[in-house]
Prior knowledge:
Layout lengths: L4 E4 L3 H12 L4 E4 L29 H17 L4 H4 L18 H17 L3 E4 L2 E9 L2 E9 L5 E4 L3 E4 L6 H5 L3 E2 L5 H4 L16 E2 L2 E5 L12 H5 L14 E3 L6 E3 L26 H4 L1 E3 L13 E4 L5 E2 L10 H21 L13 E3 L1 H4 L16 E2 L7 H4 L1 H4 L10 E5 L3 E3 L9 E3 L4 E4 L11 E3 L11 H4 L2 H21 L3 H6 L1 H13 L13
Amino acid sequence: MRADVLVVGGGLGGVAAALAAARAGRSVVLTEEFDWLGGQLTSQGVPPDEHSWIEQFGATASYRALRNGIRDYYRRHYPLTARSRAWTDLNPGAGFVSRLCHEPRVAVAVLEQLLAPHRGAGRLRVLQPYRPVAAATDGDRVTGVTLAHRDRDDRIEVTAPYVLDATETGELLPLTGTEYVTGFEGQGQTGEPSAPAEAQPMNMQAVSVCFAIDHVDGDHTIDRPAAYEFWRDYKPDFWGDRMLSWRSPHPRTLEIVERSFTPNPDDDPLSVNADQRVNPGDGNLWTFRRIAARRNFVDGAYASDITLVNWPMIDYFESPVIDVPNAAWHLAKARELSYSVLYWLQTEAPRPDGGTGFPGLRLRGDVTGSADGLAQAPYIRESRRIRAEYTVVEQDLSLAVRGERGAVQYPDSVGVGMYRIDLHPSTGGDNYIDVGSCPFEIPLGALIPQRMENLLPAGKNIGTTHITNGSYRLHPVEWNVGEVAGLLADFCLARGESPRAVRNSPQLLAEFTDRITAAGVERRWPRIAGY
């Protein structure tokens, strides 16, 4: 196959990139390894992690269209109560983690709707389920990528003038010989206050295999996992208790805190204040990432709330799953851990009434679209990251460092984002690192590899550090990065210029930023304070 733009990886960044390039009239091939497009929002099962002003500003127009589309889908197709239907900022799950907690299948439907006219017009070909297995290069250019079908012996070679890596782990970087980094950089490299003295490339954030559950009558206990005893007794040094308990470190203070768990509280969905400035929302784990609040729907429509389990106890940090020979084995162990957490919840978890176990908890693989009941794909927080023309460091956005000055303003800003520097426990034995952040910008230099000319990152693989990845890895930023990468590929094709030339030529940069602004990309924040 041949196209103007090849986008490898169909997560949020990949979909945004493909959509931007196709809207510009380019022929696009988009690939995805799993059954659903949407990555962390869908196949990984993670409700959107967003900042406190997301309903007003701080996202691209197309990301806002995605969010509005999700709400409209519920209003058109779901039996909402009249009160919830009239709720302007409808939060279907009334979860505390996000103002838009929802079932992943709805996001899949809306993403497919956005892409549908371009597929119909023949501008967009979606190869699914395919993953990259090889690449060809000529000097500093990628000339082709070989894709293998996940389930059968079938390979496709795709060539394109521009190749965008939107995979969850930066798979194209080693395949193309593109220079990249993993894990912690050292303070000597970055000067970051939260970095270790020396680089630790194999020290990466935990991965998690999420799953959805509800709570109904009957005993829905799964078979006891083979490794259950190991995980039940697993006690990391910094955890304060066994990992399978209600006690764990508070991410911001590292104080050992006890969380509660009350299935199906009879709460009012409209009373939920999903604002991370006010409350992290993880006090009651049931409502933390709830994706369907039964009180949003007419009586009898839902027998139970549905909640998404992405809690501290499912974080797998025994080993990285990038650049290790046994990555598949460790991903299987991460799934084992998630099953063990579910079994513990059903059989041994302490209840408020003094008993143990919640046998009414039911695994909802139908909600996550998987045969084994868990999310289709692991939640990968940290990717390989390009060695970029500009690398974002902690000092650029740390609230403690920048204070009232706010985050660094980049002359080549191509978007905005906001999230605390939020790092989960890592494979090197580190506890949470959680640092206040200023609303920040996305520099174009972080999307430009130091050497390669036609390969662009379109997800979490941009030029951040291990530390700043904690802020730049979330849903709206990944979408913004992908959208800009797609727009940049189109701009370079139209002008016959390279991405590097666009960044380093004031005239070209001005023309490109005008182009993305017209497309609805916000480049600057209004005057607001971080948290």
